Amino acid sequence: MHDPAIEAARFLRAHLTEPITVQDAADHVAYSPFHLSRLFTRTLGISPVQYLAAQRFQRAKALLLADDDPVVDVCMAVGFSSVGTFTRRFVEHVGLSPSGFRRMPDVLAAGAFRAIAVGGPGTGRVQGTVSLDASGVAYVGTRPHVYVGLFDRPAARGAPSAGALLMEPGPFSLVGVPPGVWWLLAASVPPDDPLGQLLVPGMVTASHDAPVLVTDLPPDPDRPAPAYHLTLAPAPEWSAPVSVALPPLAHGYGVDAGARAAERSS
User: Domain HTH araC/xylS-type spans what residues (predicted)?
Assistant: First the structure.
């Protein structure tokens, strides 16, 4: 069945290196930009502009790891004309500067993966379990590493409010969660693929179908804390990529200074 939002997503993905606009995508599916943006956001969870940015930064990540071309060349190759704008927005989406991201394979090769949870300044807790759909085994194996995080929108960009790395699908607990409305997302990668840890190819992901509300109220001893279940499965090829750099956030290597501030101000 024809879906204008999905067709627009495919169009944006095919032309991400060109100076295209929402108007171009709207013309492609014979919608007005306003109506396409509403339909696109309802279908994919993010706006066409946010989707195009995520695709461009995913392409930039691949280029940065593929060779030693100057950052300015990568910037131009993914449709940006200003290195400063490209770098600032790369940090917002990925959590590291382009040069910092390029160093990650060496950093990861020198360290050992381990289960870890990274919390924020809050007192909230979000818990649950993650399982793997049988269709995802071909992409990530039977015991993939699983990243779980809470984000301020239904897309894995920038620094999560809290996150965890699991050595395999199973229970998770996110602590230090600030009060707010968060989207619970998960992604899995083969444990023996360092580049896959950074690029998340063949995405096997999961998301809770509604936002998670976290308050600063003390837990009610008479009511059990809610538990959320996520099922990892291959994402459609038109889905928004996981643009955030997962291992640096989960392994305690940190993100560049200002990444969280930039994310909050974007």
Answer: 6-104
